[in-house]
Please model this.
Amino acid sequence: MTNRITFMIIAASLLLAACSQDDTAPREELPAGEQTVRFSAGEPTTTRTEVGTNDDRTLAITWAEGDEVGIYGRNDDRSSGDNYAYTATPYKSDAARCSFSASDTYQLFTWTKNAAQSYYAYYPYTKVTDRTPNPEAHPFSLPALQTQSEGNSPAHIARYGLMTTAPVNIPAGSVSEGAIQFNFANVFSIVELRFKMTADCAIVSVPVKQVRLISDAATLAIPAGTIDLTRAVDPAAELPVVIEDEEGSKSLALTFDTNPGITKTDYLSTYLVAAPGTHPAGTLRLEVTAIDNSTYSYTIPEQVVLRPNRHYTQSYELSLDEFVLSDEFEAEIPTLSCKAGEPLTVSMTGIADRVDFWSGEEGHDYAYAEKDRMQEPDMTMNFMMLLNSGTQRHPAKVMYSTDFDGTMTQTGVLSATWTDVSDKFNMTHPIHGVDTGYPAATASTKPNDAGTADCTDWFSGEGNSCWIAFFYHVDKFDADYVDAQTGTVGNGRTYFYSYDMWVRARYKSESSYTEIYRQKYADGVSDPDYPTFVQGSTFDSGDGTNPFRLFTNYTGYSCVLRLGAAFRPTVDKDSYLVMPKLTRPEAKNVGKDSPFVVKDSGDEQPASYQYTFTAPGIYEVAVVGTVQTLAGEKQILLRKSVTVTE
Model:
């Protein structure tokens, strides 16, 4: 780049001519004898809603249909209307000129005879709601953060510009048949910075995410302020502005909707709207931030004076070697152990475009970030139950087997290996008909929920199968037995009712489940989906219908199964309710795992992130920061083994 940098004035102002004969200005309908004040725009200056760039890089300005200006009026120094909105109608012959009509016919200006009249206008119109409208203190803002749509586009200038007019003062007794002509001028300065890479640049294009001006001496942006519209803007004097946000901002940053690239062949133009001011030699600094957060910085050695209503431009050639990488992303996990239910903290410094957290749990494991996962379903079992009559408080157990051969006899059942899993369920319930407050069960009695248990480990038999059964046992009658809870003498049998039972499969990546088994039964019907009742050898005709019975008329339950025996049997009695052989569904390809997004593109990066594990274990945690570099996307990876305890 050249050593001597000087801002040059490319265009001072663009002037408008008067209305031509083929243009017409709208008129408002008023009572007889009243005449509206007609306004038109003449000689606008550097910025408007539609801004184009001429071949010589001067800015071309045109009014657009529907543009609104705000106008304040005074009659003999008293208000005749404060901040009335007037809508532009561009002239057909030249869109750089326009006429205005009242946006609201209840808010328009009329001529007042024998009174001195003054008008003050600005663009764009802003409705004032937080204070009383006052032309001597009209609120405005010039944001410190501005956005350009893409490289070489000045279209955003109108969003941030503020145009005002020289006050129009009309002596008393004057009534004009023609329009009052406003000459708009931009209060701010347009700074065009043009960039090109040096010929020795090793890459074709350097994508840019931000251009910034920083001053040690003067304000560049005014986040909140007021302007005196009754005073003309004098390029040689200070602006008639009061800054409400302390000293405003001495930093001005320009970002992009689409990050442009700086090449070695053509200059890239960026446009900032800046507050006028004087920046002594060495107090104004330029920063260009590339996509990888590396920054080119240059302190302008000369004094820079920015005046209102001016378009300044300066060209730079940038060397790739002068981009300095800063704020490189780093993550750390200070403590590599935590308890389930308590947060694990990840601290972060530097800047990344995206930050992902991988907990190491299934579905969120970095090991499966780029490869598909074959996911086994989790299996669960639940049943609804009720105990009735007698004092045998644990008549039933839940058992499972992986080697039962399906022979539905007592000998066949007992030949298999069965594992007692009753402790996974809440099977200790009051006995109806015995315990206080629990009357004998009827068809409308509400059953107890024994709970839902994870039964995944049960399915370890051939082909991921298992058998599940209720083992029912009745002790022979003991006349000397005394129930500890009620004092009842004798241990008469207790019925076990199964109101409902299901076994379900669900993949962690899915919210729905697949029902593998659901309790159903019909007397005298053979169905492989029905459970099988196996009666022990000690049952006899004295047990009647007690060993096994179906109830179909219970409220809310169409298939209630009861296991029982004769009351006060003289021998121990056993029976078995065996479910069909159940098979766990096959593993399915659920695709790649996904992370928890700590920061997405455009989000503010937090200083830390917390994650809470719900189950103990050892987890391979990963934190991935994705950054854009001049050579492309780069990932910065932290992997740690975290121990989670109860």
The domain at 8-320 is CATH 2.60.40.2620 (Immunoglobulin-like). Confidence is low (pLDDT under 50) at residues 1-28, 45-50.
